[in-house]
Amino acid sequence: MSGTTIGVVIALIAGLAAVMLVGWPMLAREDSHLERQIDAETREVDAGTDLREAIERSLTAIREIEQDHRAGNLSDEDFGTLDRAERARAAELMRQRDERAPADDEAPSTPAPDSVSA
Amino acid sequence: MSLFGRAVLLLALAAAIYAVVMGVAAHRRGRRKWQFSAERAVYAVAGLVTLAIVGMWISFLTDDYSLRNVAEYTSTTLGWQYKITALWGSQAGSLLLWMWIFSLFACLVVYTNRHRNRQLMPVVVAVMMGIGIFFLVLLSFVTSPFETLAVVPAEGRGLNPQLQNVYMQIHPPLLYLGYVGLTIPFAFAIAALVTRRLDTSWITSVRRWTIFSWLFLGVGILIGAKWAYETLGWGGYWAWDPVENAAFMPWLVATAFLHSVMVQERRGMLKVWNMVLVILTFVLCIFGTFLTRSGLIQSVHAFGESTLGPFFLGFIVLVAVGAFALLVTRLDDLRSQHSLESYISREAVFLFNNLLLLALAFAVFWGTMFPVLTEAVRDNRIVVGQGFYNQVAAPIGIALLILTGVGPLIAWRKASPAQLRRRFTVPIAAAVVAIVPLLLFTDLRNHWVAGLTILVGVFVAACVLGEFWRGTRVRHAVGGVSWPGALFSMIGRNRRRYGGYIVHLGVVVLFIGFAGSKGFATEADRVIPRGGTAEVAGYTFTNTGSERTTTPHVTTTSVRLNVGKDGRNVAMMRPGIQQFSVDNVRGSKVALDSGFSRDLYVVLTELKANGSATVSVFVNPLVLWIWIAGFIITAGGLVAAWPARPAPKPVKASQPAGTARA
């Protein structure tokens, strides 16, 4: 078999593999009810991820504000203002998370500051 | 191999078109299996392009001169490592590399988002594969890496000797990792605009992509500078060459984006601005690719004239017009949640930083395109020299360096005068103290720009190190841990912040290297007879004879120079002239002796039969610190991008919002 023939055969096999890979999901039977349910769950998953990431950012911000204050980068007045605002925001985000999924076991991926309470 | 390569590229093109169609359809109709199918098409594109590039490499390694690329860029005498990297010596080969890296990145995006961003992903896939279609069309129909020759030569032309260098083996892939990586934030930005999911989630998704791409591009630029320094023989590392500028511009805009996203994340501001930056970064990446392939510019890096220019220009216009038009339709959704409360605040510093970076990017763009514009308008190409760039870049660079130190020390929202006094007294004092050695050991009056840069560098280093000190001290006091433990745990708990500070320290070192090498360098030409000596900047160069070495690949004629200072032997240097066997190309073999305080850099321009050598000698202070800075910046970027460990348990809210801990 010449090199060209081998190359053509490999290309054909690769093409067939690509068609199968791409076409496989299209062969699955569609359940419109299930599709709507999955769509709703997808939006829920995205919203949950957004919420979790917003909580992480808020907790990181609280930690940074605490650290800046301890290091002397923030006055007591500015620390108080920023800290209250950010803790309130974090508490509200956590409340939204709890209302969506009270048994949510997922943890934020960054360590929490010393304490957060609303 | 030609038929195989063309076939798999055409199959990849078909898969990319399918992915775009199904991605758009999945977005419009919300059909899950269409989305899955589109995402699998991304994997198919990557697999097929991988087959193409592997086929190309096999052709290079087996000296298949039936392919034009192989015949024009390799030879039987070329080492196998250069045969592999010869792929990106040609235009078509470099585009194939671009597409391959892009397809792998697209796979990674699809895989890492298989359980997240599900509403964005159909559009992300469509945008990514839309970009892929452009490159695959070029590879399939305009400039194929698998083009064959009618007459197969017995031997290849060989690789440009200037590209036979380890830095040139890694410089293009690093640049492409940066260019290609910066398409991912663009794809997510467009998806966010299309789906109107314009909160901060898309930025969180692309943050690491942006950092790594910025790192790759920056390190790629530095490696290119190192290559120019050691190979081109003019004693410098940056000449504001148009192709250097083409990589520098997107890096500047990406730097601006990396900073301004922090403002959006923390304060909900600059949303429109961030969209503009990410679109502009991508457009500049494609623009840079366009510049090197259009024939518009003359450069050691350029591929010369080609037919690709109009295609790239059309693609740039399409992307820019389409993206900005989409942005305009979403302006109402991008309103800021807060406004700027004080010009002495971290938000304001980041804004000034952004404006300076974009000003520098615009100045570089203007200088790069000015010759093209003058030729188009007046039929007379007016070249912009280094003087223009240095005049513009120096003050902007110094201002940016100042902000590098000021920014981390200023609080969000506003900073009080008392706080500013507390924070900046020590760094200013450090800079004042640093004037003394500069006055004693340098001609500061005639090199005031370099001197000012060093003083500002000392100020910034003191600012940043002060932040590390204060944070470590707090951690040590609160956590009861050792000082090293406090430092590492402080960095580990806030990798993004302290990784950024490490990058800033690297930037300080970089600027000090620039100041030393540009401001205090000495250059001299000398004719040294055999057995004779010459002196440059306190160093004595003695010509102890010449030598010639010959390999099948290259003949090198060198002069041996014994270098001494204050009666001590410092180095033995062998600058030479190289003659390569293929094409009889001549090149310089630079002799380089690097040290922490200076580089000795010698180029042989002529060697007479009687052994008399004409050399150019450069004494370049502090150059080594430029390359060291690259390592520091890389380390800082990795720290900033490293994912944090998950916390052990969630924290639940137990009281109504609006109440705070007393």
Describe the protein's topology.
The complex is a heterodimer of chains A (118) and B (662).
Chain A: H1 3-27, H2 32-70, H3 76-100
Chain B: H1 2-29, H2 32-61, H3 68-73, H4 80-85, H5 91-112, H6 121-142, H7 166-181, H8 183-195, H9 201-231, H10 242-267, H11 271-294, H12 309-329, H13 346-378, H14 386-406, H15 417-441, H16 448-479, H17 483-493, H18 495-519, E1 522-528, E2 533-536, E3 539-550, E4 554-565, E5 568-573, E6 576-580, E7 586-589, E8 591-594, E9 598-607, E10 613-621, H19 624-641
Antiparallel strand pairs in B: 1-10, 2-3, 3-4, 4-5, 4-6, 6-7, 8-9, 9-10
Helix pairs in contact in B: 1-2, 1-6, 2-5, 2-6, 5-6, 5-7, 6-8, 7-9, 8-9, 8-11, 9-10, 9-19, 10-11, 10-13, 11-12, 13-14, 14-16, 15-16, 16-17, 16-18, 17-18, 18-19
What share of the residues of chain B lie within helices? 55-70%
**What is the mean pLDDT of chain A?**
75
Structural class of chain A: mainly alpha
Instruction: Give the helices and strands of chain A as they follow along the chain.
Output: HHH
Mean pLDDT of chain B: 88
- Largest interface, counted with CB-CB under 8 A? A-B, 69 and 76 residues
Shape of chain A: elongated
Query: How much of the polypeptide of chain A forms β-strand, as a percent range?
Result: under 5%
Query: Would you identify the regions of chain A where 5 or more consecutive residues have pLDDT less than 50?
Result: 103-118
Helical coverage of chain A, percent range = over 70%
Number of helices of chain B: 19
In quaternary terms, these chains amount to heterodimer
Cα-based radius of gyration of chain A, to the nearest Å: 26 Å
User: Proportion of β residues of chain B?
Assistant: 5-15%
Distance between the termini of chain A: 76 Å
